[in-house]
Write a structure and sequence with these properties.
Layout (H helix, E strand, L loop, with lengths): L1 H27 L4 H14 L1 H20 L7 H33 L8 H30 L3
Helix pairs in contact: 1-2, 1-3, 1-5, 2-4, 3-4, 4-5
InterPro entries: DUF2269_transmembrane
Pfam family, one: DUF2269
Protein name: DUF2269 family protein
Length: about 150
Protein backbone atom coordinates (compact mmCIF):
# COMPACT_ATOMS: atom_id res chain seq x y z
CA UNK A 1 0.00 0.00 0.00
CA UNK A 2 2.84 2.38 0.87
CA UNK A 3 4.44 2.17 -2.58
CA UNK A 4 1.10 2.89 -4.33
CA UNK A 5 0.49 5.92 -2.13
CA UNK A 6 4.02 7.09 -2.79
CA UNK A 7 3.43 6.77 -6.55
CA UNK A 8 0.22 8.83 -6.36
CA UNK A 9 2.03 11.32 -4.12
CA UNK A 10 4.81 11.81 -6.68
CA UNK A 11 2.39 12.11 -9.64
CA UNK A 12 0.26 14.66 -7.78
CA UNK A 13 3.42 16.59 -6.88
CA UNK A 14 4.34 16.81 -10.55
CA UNK A 15 0.84 18.04 -11.47
CA UNK A 16 0.66 20.60 -8.65
CA UNK A 17 4.24 21.86 -8.84
CA UNK A 18 4.26 22.17 -12.64
CA UNK A 19 1.20 24.40 -12.48
CA UNK A 20 2.70 26.47 -9.67
CA UNK A 21 5.94 27.00 -11.59
CA UNK A 22 4.12 27.87 -14.84
CA UNK A 23 1.93 30.68 -13.44
CA UNK A 24 4.66 33.35 -13.44
CA UNK A 25 6.02 32.13 -16.78
CA UNK A 26 2.64 32.51 -18.45
CA UNK A 27 1.88 35.90 -16.94
CA UNK A 28 5.29 37.43 -17.57
CA UNK A 29 4.78 37.09 -21.33
CA UNK A 30 1.63 39.27 -21.47
CA UNK A 31 2.46 42.71 -22.89
CA UNK A 32 -0.93 43.90 -24.16
CA UNK A 33 -4.50 43.85 -22.86
CA UNK A 34 -5.40 41.06 -25.28
CA UNK A 35 -2.44 38.94 -24.25
CA UNK A 36 -3.15 39.53 -20.57
CA UNK A 37 -6.82 38.54 -21.01
CA UNK A 38 -5.77 35.35 -22.79
CA UNK A 39 -3.14 34.51 -20.15
CA UNK A 40 -5.58 35.11 -17.28
CA UNK A 41 -8.26 33.02 -18.99
CA UNK A 42 -5.70 30.24 -19.41
CA UNK A 43 -4.79 30.45 -15.72
CA UNK A 44 -8.46 30.32 -14.75
CA UNK A 45 -8.88 27.13 -16.77
CA UNK A 46 -5.75 25.51 -15.34
CA UNK A 47 -6.46 26.62 -11.75
CA UNK A 48 -7.82 23.14 -11.04
CA UNK A 49 -4.32 21.64 -11.38
CA UNK A 50 -2.72 23.16 -8.26
CA UNK A 51 -5.97 22.75 -6.32
CA UNK A 52 -6.56 19.10 -7.25
CA UNK A 53 -2.90 18.07 -7.39
CA UNK A 54 -2.09 19.98 -4.21
CA UNK A 55 -5.00 18.54 -2.27
CA UNK A 56 -4.15 15.03 -3.43
CA UNK A 57 -0.50 15.68 -2.58
CA UNK A 58 -1.39 16.79 0.93
CA UNK A 59 -3.78 13.87 1.50
CA UNK A 60 -1.34 11.24 0.23
CA UNK A 61 1.46 12.83 2.25
CA UNK A 62 -0.65 12.60 5.39
CA UNK A 63 -1.68 9.03 4.52
CA UNK A 64 2.00 8.10 4.15
CA UNK A 65 2.54 9.60 7.59
CA UNK A 66 -0.28 7.55 9.08
CA UNK A 67 1.19 4.40 7.54
CA UNK A 68 4.56 5.29 9.05
CA UNK A 69 3.70 7.17 12.26
CA UNK A 70 7.35 8.00 12.98
CA UNK A 71 7.20 10.59 10.16
CA UNK A 72 5.11 12.86 12.38
CA UNK A 73 8.15 13.15 14.70
CA UNK A 74 10.41 14.18 11.80
CA UNK A 75 10.83 17.95 11.53
CA UNK A 76 11.42 17.80 7.74
CA UNK A 77 8.04 16.06 7.30
CA UNK A 78 6.06 18.49 9.45
CA UNK A 79 7.87 21.46 7.85
CA UNK A 80 7.06 20.16 4.35
CA UNK A 81 3.38 19.96 5.23
CA UNK A 82 3.42 23.47 6.69
CA UNK A 83 5.11 24.90 3.59
CA UNK A 84 2.65 23.11 1.37
CA UNK A 85 -0.34 24.46 3.28
CA UNK A 86 1.04 27.95 2.57
CA UNK A 87 1.22 27.06 -1.13
CA UNK A 88 -2.36 25.76 -1.13
CA UNK A 89 -3.66 28.92 0.56
CA UNK A 90 -1.92 31.06 -2.05
CA UNK A 91 -3.01 29.04 -5.08
CA UNK A 92 -6.48 28.03 -3.91
CA UNK A 93 -7.54 31.36 -2.43
CA UNK A 94 -5.34 34.36 -3.04
CA UNK A 95 -4.29 33.88 -6.66
CA UNK A 96 -7.80 33.11 -8.02
CA UNK A 97 -9.21 36.27 -6.42
CA UNK A 98 -6.34 38.26 -7.96
CA UNK A 99 -7.06 36.76 -11.37
CA UNK A 100 -10.72 37.82 -11.10
CA UNK A 101 -9.71 41.37 -10.11
CA UNK A 102 -7.22 41.59 -12.97
CA UNK A 103 -9.77 40.34 -15.50
CA UNK A 104 -12.29 42.89 -14.21
CA UNK A 105 -9.72 45.68 -14.62
CA UNK A 106 -8.92 44.53 -18.16
CA UNK A 107 -12.61 44.32 -19.12
CA UNK A 108 -12.93 48.03 -18.24
CA UNK A 109 -9.90 48.95 -20.35
CA UNK A 110 -10.22 50.42 -23.81
CA UNK A 111 -7.23 50.04 -26.08
CA UNK A 112 -4.34 47.65 -25.83
CA UNK A 113 -2.15 49.38 -23.22
CA UNK A 114 -2.12 47.69 -19.83
CA UNK A 115 -3.51 50.09 -17.17
CA UNK A 116 -1.50 51.01 -14.08
CA UNK A 117 -4.14 49.49 -11.77
CA UNK A 118 -3.71 46.16 -13.56
CA UNK A 119 0.09 46.36 -13.33
CA UNK A 120 -0.12 47.05 -9.57
CA UNK A 121 -2.50 44.13 -9.03
CA UNK A 122 -0.32 41.90 -11.21
CA UNK A 123 2.76 42.79 -9.13
CA UNK A 124 0.91 41.63 -6.00
CA UNK A 125 0.06 38.33 -7.71
CA UNK A 126 3.65 37.94 -8.94
CA UNK A 127 4.90 38.47 -5.39
CA UNK A 128 2.52 35.75 -4.10
CA UNK A 129 3.58 33.43 -6.92
CA UNK A 130 7.21 34.01 -5.95
CA UNK A 131 6.47 33.11 -2.33
CA UNK A 132 4.65 29.96 -3.47
CA UNK A 133 7.52 28.97 -5.75
CA UNK A 134 10.04 29.48 -2.95
CA UNK A 135 7.86 27.44 -0.58
CA UNK A 136 7.56 24.71 -3.24
CA UNK A 137 11.34 24.61 -3.69
CA UNK A 138 11.91 24.40 0.07
CA UNK A 139 9.25 21.70 0.39
CA UNK A 140 10.84 19.63 -2.38
CA UNK A 141 14.30 20.05 -0.86
CA UNK A 142 13.00 18.95 2.54
CA UNK A 143 11.35 15.85 1.11
CA UNK A 144 14.33 14.83 -0.99
CA UNK A 145 17.20 15.53 1.41
CA UNK A 146 15.41 15.15 4.79
CA UNK A 147 17.95 17.46 6.46
CA UNK A 148 16.58 17.24 10.00
Amino acid sequence: MYIYLLFIHIISAVVAMAAIICYPLIMSSARTVGQAKFALALLEKTAILPKFGGTLLLLTGLALGFLEISLFRELWYVSSIAFFIVILIIFAGLIPSGIKQQLKLLQQTKGDVLPDAYRLNRRRSAWLEGIANLAALISILLMVFKPY
